[in-house]
Amino acid sequence: MKRLLSVSLLMTVFLLGCETKPQEGEKNSSASSTSSTVSSSATNSSSTSSTVSSSSTTSSATSSSLSSSSTSSTGGGQASFVPLFISCGGYTTFVLDTNGMVWATGYNSEGQLGKGDNKDTNSFVIVASNVKSVACSGIHTFIIKNDNTLWATGDNSAGQLGTGNKKDTNSFLMVESNVKAVSCGNFDNHHTFIIKNDDTLWGTGDNNRGELGTNISTTSFVMIANNVKKVVCGAYNTFIIKNDDTLWATGYNYYGQLGTNIYPNSFVMVASNVKAVACGLNHTCIIKNDDTLWAAGDNYYGQLGTGNYNNTTSFVLVESNVRSVACGENYTIIIKNDNTLWATGNDNSGQFGIGYKNKTNSFIMLTSNVKEVACGRYHTLIIKENDTLWATGANNKGQLGIGKNIGNTNSFVEITITY
């Protein structure tokens, strides 16, 4: 059955400039360290292949003032859409609703939307059901279903889907079971990590810069560590939080984004008392148990929020009373304990939703009454306390899901989805 989607756009336009960062080369760094390491093993995991059917919806866009919004319905007796969780890839967006449905929009050249083809879409379509978690990079996507099975779709050129081969797919395939968490290398990176129900950490895909924390690249999930409760994949690097709240990192560290001055190819401990972590392209933010925000790495655009544009190779304190953090390519957004939304860094595509700011090196308040936030490369989505879904920023691939590729928007647009 077709499901219809309607979209309300609420926009206020501001004008400012933008800035492009010059290219910088890579370097290899090595240093002695007293940091502990996580032992790893190469235990292979088998995979199976099943498919999830997908259906498509269409959307239309209408304009209204900031004080109003419109919602259309296809009729009574159907489920209501209430957004629960958002995951943004480089140019894609996935929304999980309270009915366990996954909706997707945006760039799909590698089949990363999982809708059975490789065509982009500029409106949200349902791609999976009975789902409790979703994670995406720019080119591949994973979901965890209610029975704890793991399913994957998209680019598999480095074996990042964990299927045992390097064959791409544009429909979700089942690859693992007994999984409770998953994270994909952000933007266009080619590695994936999962945590199983027994708190073991498993990884697959590219390991050219040590991002798997082991000595091999692989096309099947291999066990890397024990006693892990959270995992976050960055650009060619990976962070884990262990059950004792220590933070460990491995992989690419040219800008000091691991919070250390060494270049590890296995997990090393970089912080303690940590409860959350988020990665941008070359910067990292963590939240400690006391709700303080700390940042490390590249700060060319002010994405660390330190009040300057200096890089740092160790985590520095930048904010307090923070409950959530998300990173785009070169910007950072936080939700404070009072549910206000704040941002710092690059705003060249309107991803702050307040008019083009170009860049800022300290956090500025964007809006209030926010309970969830997610960032793509240059776009941002939020869920407000009244369960409404809003988006801003780049839309060149339809990643905002507003029904047409209108280009960037620099104010938050309300996305109203109806079954």
Textual characterization of the structure:
By secondary structure, this protein is an all-beta fold. It has strands at 5-10, 59-64, 83-88, 92-97, 102-106, 121-128, 131-136, 140-145, 150-154, 169-176, 179-184, 191-196, 201-205, 218-225, 228-233, 237-242, 247-251, 268-271, 274-279, 283-288, 293-297, 312-319, 322-327, 331-336, 341-347, 358-367, 370-375, 379-384, 389-393, 409-415. The strands form eight sheets. A four-stranded antiparallel sheet has the order 3-4-5-6, with no helix packed on it. A four-stranded antiparallel sheet has the order 7-8-9-10, with no helix packed on it. A four-stranded antiparallel sheet has the order 11-12-13-14, with no helix packed on it. It is globular and about 50 Å long. The chain starts with a strand and ends with a strand.
Sheet of most strands: 4 strands, antiparallel
Radius of gyration: 20 Å
Structural class, by secondary structure, is mainly beta
Shape, principal axes of CA atoms: globular
Strand neighbour order, sheet with most strands: 3-4-5-6
- Gap between N and C termini: 10 Å
Regions with little confidence, pLDDT below 50 for 5+ residues: 1-76
Percent range of helical residues: under 10%
Order of helices and strands, N to C?
Answer: EEEEEEEEEEEEEEEEEEEEEEEEEEEEEE
Number of helices: 0
Tally of DSSP β-strands: 30
Percent of sequence in beta strands: 35-45%
Let me know the average pLDDT: 85
